[in-house]
Write a sequence for this structure.
């Protein structure tokens, strides 16, 4: 999810220091993870770069446009806004920004424009090494239920959790038996096997305790990056009943 202009001279994370980095949404969860990883693994602080928020997004038809919450800018960050009418992909191609942080592939990259490339050519290898080192599989979404409903029926959380867990196990079974035929990728079977070898059979783990390390890391990142006024404890984010829910692989 880190893209650079091929003529920017950026070949490693440290090269981003002092550069202009574009994004459609500064406070999106994906960028919280990226910035946190870059600081933990490579020593690059969010304040080391100049952030440029684009006024348009070339991938809005895929993931939707950046929300109001994704445009929160903390104090102490160097930030400006891109040219009116230019999306993040156009800013990168033109050289208005040197790099781009975005969960989705920008239009120019998807179309094979040679002026745009990934910072990490073998991003899969880098990501797998990160997981092997930290055990973290970044979370970007969660299921929300009104607290009033959970307070009225404490078994509702359990029922919802079991339903999603059962559906996931059915999906695992399909991946194992017929995923290769459904997805039509030449090496689907081998990819599935290598994922299980690295991450275990339950690579999409559900439940509080199974994801505590990941949740704690995300809360730390949000605080360190000025997006949270204090370091929130993961248990504060969940209904007491939900904290008790977990599953076995």
């Amino acid at each position: 999810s880190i893209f650079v202009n091929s003529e920017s001279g950026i070949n490693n994370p440290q090269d981003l220091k002092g550069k202009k980095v574009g994004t459609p949404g500064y406070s999106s969860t994906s960028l919280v993870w990226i910035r946190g990883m870059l600081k933990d693994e490579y020593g690059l602080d969010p304040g080391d770069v100049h952030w440029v928020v684009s006024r348009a997004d070339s991938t809005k038809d895929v993931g939707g446009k950046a929300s109001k919450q994704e445009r929160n800018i903390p104090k102490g960050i160097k930030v400006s806004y891109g040219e009116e009418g230019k999306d993040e992909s156009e800013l990168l191609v033109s050289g208005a920004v040197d790099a781009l942080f975005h969960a989705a592939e920008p239009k120019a990259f998807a179309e094979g424009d040679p002026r745009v490339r990934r910072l990490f050519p073998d991003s899969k290898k880098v990501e797998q090494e990160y997981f092997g080192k930290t055990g973290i599989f970044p979370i970007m979404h969660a299921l929300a239920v009104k607290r009033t409903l959970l307070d009225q029926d404490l078994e509702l959380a359990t029922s919802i959790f079991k339903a999603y867990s059962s559906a996931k196990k059915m999906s695992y079974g399909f991946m194992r038996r017929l995923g290769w035929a459904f997805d039509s990728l030449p090496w689907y079977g081998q990819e599935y096997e290598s994922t299980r070898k690295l991450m275990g059979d339950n690579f999409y783990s559900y439940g509080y305790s199974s994801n505590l390390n990941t949740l704690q890391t995300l809360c730390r990142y949000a605080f360190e990056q000025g997006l949270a006024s204090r370091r929130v404890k993961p248990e504060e984010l969940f209904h007491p009943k939900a904290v008790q829910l977990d599953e076995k692989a």
Summary: The beta strands are 2-5, 20-23, 50-53, 79-81, 99-101, 116-118. The mean pLDDT is 93.
